[in-house]
Amino acid sequence: MDDSIILQKVSDLTxxxxxxxxxxxxxxxxxxxxxxxxxxxxxLDQCWDLLRRRRARRSAGLDPDDEGLRPEGVVESYEQ
Length: 80
Prior knowledge:
Layout: H1 3-26, H2 31-59, H3 72-75
């Protein structure tokens, strides 16, 4: 996987998230749309996590393609 593919996915998800948030300004989101918004947030966290780890491996002279998407439970349990 190439970083540009991950960045395109981030861009696509961000646009979808923006659309859902804008529609929320007009009326409450349905349960389905709220669930999709939450799923987008998780996917974005996974993508950014993957990009950070790929860049770290590249900086260390390692193959960034050895990194993969971490499960939701791992990414969403990080302490801020």
